[in-house]
Amino acid sequence: MAGKTIVILVAGEYEDLEVWYPRLRLEEAGYDVKLCVAEGPLDVKGKHGYPCRADSLLSAIAPASVEGVIAPGGWAPDKLRRDPAVLAFVRAVHERGKLVASICHGPWIPISAGILRGRRVTSSLGIKDDLVNAGAIWVDEPAVVDGNLVTARVPKDLPAFARAMLQVLAGPG
After folding, report:
1. Which of 85, 120, 138, 161 suits 40 as a labelling partner, its CA being 20 to 30 A distant?
2. How confident is the model at residue 109 (pLDDT cuts 50, 70, 90)?
3. Based on the structure, what is the number of domains in the chain?
4. What is the CATH number of the domain that holds 34?
5. For range 117-137, the mean pLDDT
């Protein structure tokens, strides 16, 4: 997986486990994982106080150079989805058929990017109505794969989320 980069979007109040579990699992599988903020500073804290030093500003990464993008939950997605550059990045990755993954409240970002209409997804129950109103088909399952999209509900579903992401990254077959 050398040279295969995955971006994880971070901002203040991210859900701690939903950043670190995927990062460690994907690094273990050989991916180069970059934690990216939309704008400075690079240092942010999670909902539970865990510090995070982002590797880069998102603007320094070309969407064409990545194998996927992950939107963790917490309150960070509500901030990130207001940034046109974040939405353009997610749309560009999606249009290339690469992994777009989100968990818990993370699907707020692909909702705002306009890529979920008619797609099968899951999330925290708290944003089910947002997904349905965006035209997605919401199901109550630990992790859902619909083409290049992977979604999961909550931190307890992180193992299923990681397996699903690795399945999509491995490609067909």
Report:
1. 161
2. very high
3. 1
4. 3.40.50.880
5. 98
Query: Long-range contact list for 122-129, CB < 8 A, 24+ apart?
Result: 122/151, 122/152, 122/153, 123/151, 123/153, 124/73, 124/153, 124/154, 125/153
Is position 52 annotated as part of the catalytic site?
no
The one-character DSSP state at 118 is T
48 is catalytic: no
Domain range spanning residue 71?
5-170
Supply the pLDDT for residue 40. Answer: 85
CA distance 163 to 155: 14
CA 48 to chain centre: 19
Are 114 and 108 in contact by the 8 Å Cβ rule? The answer is no
* Nearest residue to 34 (alpha-carbon basis) of 12, 13, 59, 16: 59
DSSP track, 127-149: GHHHHHHTT-EE---SEEEETTE
Work out the pLDDT band at 3, boundaries 50, 70, 90.
low
Characterize the bridge pairing of strands 120-121 and 51-53.
unpaired
Picking from 2, 7, 24, the residue whose alpha carbon sits closest to that of residue 58 is 7
- Which residues, in sequence order, are CB contacts of 40 under 8 Å at separation 6+? 57
Task: Classify each residue of 110-135 as buried b or exposed e, where b means 16 or more C-beta atoms within 10 Å of its C-beta.
Answer: bbbbebbeebbbbbbeebbebbeebe
**Could you tell me where the DSSP H helices lie in the chain?**
16-28, 76-80, 84-95, 108-113, 128-133, 158-170
